[in-house]
Write a structure and sequence with these properties.
Rossmann fold, 2 domains, 8 strands, two-stranded antiparallel ribbon, Dehydroquinate synthase-like, alpha domain, binds fe (ii) ion, alpha/beta
Length: about 375
C-alpha cells in the first residue's frame, strides 16, 4: 500500500460556529476580511465575524470587491490593501470565489510574485494564516490548498497551489445557507458531487480519499430528490455543507480531472455557473471512464444506489434541466483549450483531443 495524505486545516462544524469559537480569531493583531459585495452582509456571517473580532479587541479591514470567478487584478488589489492595512491574518467569508481570492491575497501579501509569474508554478510557500467561513455548500475551498483564478491569457481558469494555501481553520455553519436560491444550492451541490466523483476517477486517487469520497457521494445522493424539488430542512443544509467539505478534502489530495478542466470553458465563454458546467459533463465523462476502469464507476454508482451511468445521467438531467445551446465550432475551440489543461492529464484515463471533443458533443449538442 502507498499512501500520502496531508490535510492540516482544523475543521469545526456546529450551530453558531463563529460565535462559539471566537477564540479561534486570536490569530493576530489585524485581520483582512475578504468577501463579495453582498452575501456576507445579508446572511449574517459578516456580523458574526465582526462580533468575534470585537470580543477579542482585534482590528480589521474589509476587502469586499471579490467578483464571481475572481481575476488576477482583483487579488493583487486585495493584497495591496492587506499590506497597507498591515493585516497579519486573513478571514475569507463566502463561496468559492471569495475563498479562492482570499488565498491568493494571503499569498501575495507576503510574497513578491510578479503578475506574469503567478501561474508559473513557482509561487513559494509563504502566506498569511487564514480562517475560512463558507457560505455556500459546494466548493470545499475551505479545506484545499488551491486558489482558482480567471486566467485571461489562456482564456480559462487556472489553479495556483501550495501547502501554505491550506486555511488554518474552516468554520462551518449551515445557517448562512438558509436564504440561498435553489439555483445556487443546486449548482454548488453538483460541484461538490463532481469533486468527490472526480476524486475517485483521478490518477491520484488513494484509499483514504476514496473512503471520504464514497461518504460524500452517498450523502449527496440522499439529497437528489430535494435538489430536484427545492425543499430543504436545516438538516439537509447541514448535510450538503458537510458533504461539500468532504469533497474538498478529497480533491485536496487527488485534484480534479477532465470534468473541471473541460467545464472551465463553459464558464469562461458562456458564463455558465461552475458547478452546473461540471454537472453537464460529469455523466458523459463517467461513461468514457467506465470503458477503462469499470470497477471505479460501479463503486461510484453503488454509493448512489444506482446500476448504470444512464440512470445517473437521467437524475442529473432532472436536477439541472435543459442544456444551454452550443454549436460545434465552440466545442472545437473548448477541446483545444482543455487538451492543454493539466486537469485532463490527472484523469485515471486521459482522453485525447478527439475524445475530449466527443465528450463535449455527447454532453452538449
Ligand atoms: Fe469545483
Amino acid at each position: 500500500m502507498k499512501l500520502d495524505f496531508h490535510m492540516p486545516t482544523k475543521v469545526i462544524a456546529e450551530k453558531e460556529c463563529v460565535r462559539n469559537n471566537a477564540d479561534v480569531f486570536k490569530m493576530g493583531k489585524k485581520a483582512l476580511i475578504v468577501t463579495g459585495k453582498c452575501s456576507a452582509k445579508n446572511n449574517g456571517s459578516l456580523d458574526d465575524v465582526i462580533w468575534a473580532l470585537d470580543k477579542n479587541n482585534i482590528e480589521y479591514a474589509v476587502f469586499d470587491k471579490v467578483m464571481s470567478n475572481p481575476t488576477v487584478e482583483c487579488v493583487y488589489e486585495g493584497a495591496e490593501m492587506a499590506m497597507e492595512e498591515e493585516a497579519d491574518f486573513v478571514i475569507a467569508i463566502g463561496g468559492g470565489s471569495p475563498m479562492d481570492a482570499a488565498k491568493a491575497i494571503a499569498l501575495l501579501a507576503v510574497s513578491d510574485i510578479d503578475r506574469k509569474d503567478l501561474f508559473s508554478g513557482n509561487i513559494g510557500n509563504k502566506a498569511l494564516p487564514m480562517i475560512h467561513i463558507p457560505t455556500t455548500a459546494g466548493t470545499g475551498s475551505e479545506v484545499t490548498p488551491y486558489s482558482i483564478l480567471t486566467n485571461h491569457e489562456k482564456q480559462t481558469k487556472t489553479s495556483i497551489a501550495a501547502p501554505c494555501l491550506f486555511p488554518a481553520y474552516a468554520l462551518l455553519d449551515a445557517k448562512y445557507m438558509k436564504k440561498l436560491s435553489l439555483k445556487t444550492t443546486v449548482n454548488t451541490a453538483i460541484d461538490s458531487l463532481s469533486h468527490s466523483v472526480e476524486g475517485m476517477m483521478s490518477a491520484r486517487a488513494n484509499i483514504m480519499a476514496d473512503i471520504i469520497a464514497r461518504e460524500a457521494i452517498r450523502l449527496l445522493a440522499s439529497e437528489f430528490d430535494n435538489l430536484a424539488s427545492g425543499e430543504f430542512t436545516d438538516e439537509d443544509r447541514e448535510k450538503l455543507l458537510y458533504a461539500s467539505m468532504l469533497g474538498g478534502v478529497v480533491i485536496s489530495q487527488t485534484k480534479t480531472t477532465a470534468v473541471h478542466a473541460m467545464g472551465y470553458s463553459l464558464t469562461y465563454f458562456k458564463g455558465i455557473d461552475h458547478g452546473r458546467a461540471n454537472g453537464l459533463l460529469l455523466g458523459e465523462f463517467m461513461e468514457y471512464t467506465e470503458k477503462f476502469a469499470p470497477e471505479k464507476i460501479h463503486d461510484i454508482l453503488d454509493c448512489m444506489g444506482m446500476k448504470t451511468v444512464d440512470e445517473f445521467k437521467a437524475e442529473l438531467h432532472k436536477i439541472l434541466g435543459e442544456t444551454e445551446n452550443f454549436v460545434l465550432a465552440e466545442l472545437e475551440m473548448y477541446a483545444d483549450i482543455a487538451n492543454m489543461a493539466g486537469g485532463v492529464k490527472n484523469s485515471i484515463h486521459c482522453p485525447d483531443r478527439s475524445e475530449i471533443l466527443e465528450i463535449y458533443k455527447n454532453s452538449l449538442l
